[in-house]
Amino acid sequence: MVTVAEWARIRSGLRFGQILEGTVVKVPRPGAIGVFVDVGLSVGGFVDVLLLPERGEDWPTEGTVGEFEIWWADSRRQIRLKPADSRYLRDNFADFVERFRPGWPSDIGRPVRDPGPPSLEELRATARSDEPPADSP
């Protein structure tokens, strides 16, 4: 695992929407969790189940090489990605973005910054809801 300082240095060079070539290295539970991607940095990449097709058999498999966009990065020391290839995106991705991350188009090209830990109110709202908060990837 990288240090906090190293993660801050790596994150400072990342931009939302930046394309990284990566290799899917692990698909622990197709259809349930997401996929882990090696993007050639000292931190790993991850594509969340919420961004992938509903059917696990439509997900990229281990060994798949492709392009991934930086979707999010915070204090977890992991780059959150979204597939650049629409075959690997959820069917209603545009609706998903409009509903849960409406600022995405304006975020593209902006530096990835750590928003800091969630507030107590954000944690409570998340605990009360089975849906992700609007500003969460």
Question: Could you provide a short overview of the structure?
Answer:
This protein is of the alpha+beta class. It has helices at 4-12, 93-100, 104-107, 120-128; strands spanning 19-26, 34-38, 45-48, 65-73, 79-83.
Explain what you see.
This protein is globular. The mean pLDDT is about 85. It has helices at about 5-10, 95-100, 105, 120-130, and strands spanning about 20-25, 35-40, 45-50, 65-75, 80-85. The chain is an alpha+beta fold and about 140 residues long. The chain contains four helices and five strands.
Helices and strands, with pairings:
Layout: H1 4-12, E1 19-26, E2 34-38, E3 45-48, E4 65-73, E5 79-83, H2 93-100, H3 104-107, H4 120-128
Parallel strand pairs: 3-5
Antiparallel strand pairs: 1-2, 1-4, 2-3, 4-5
- Give the end-to-end Cα distance, rounded to a whole number of Å: 22 Å
Unreliable segments of 5+ consecutive residues = none
CA radius of gyration is 15 Å
Structural class comes to alpha+beta
> What is the string of helix and strand elements?
HEEEEEHHH
Average predicted local confidence, pLDDT: 87
In DSSP terms (H or I, runs of 4 or more residues), the helix count works out at 4
The tally of beta strands, per DSSP, is 5
Shape descriptor: globular
In this structure, how is the largest beta sheet organized? 5 strands, mixed, barrel
Strand ordering within the main sheet: 1-2-3-5-4
The helix content is 10-25%
Strand content: 15-25%
Descriptive keywords:
5-stranded mixed β-barrel, about 140 residues, alpha+beta
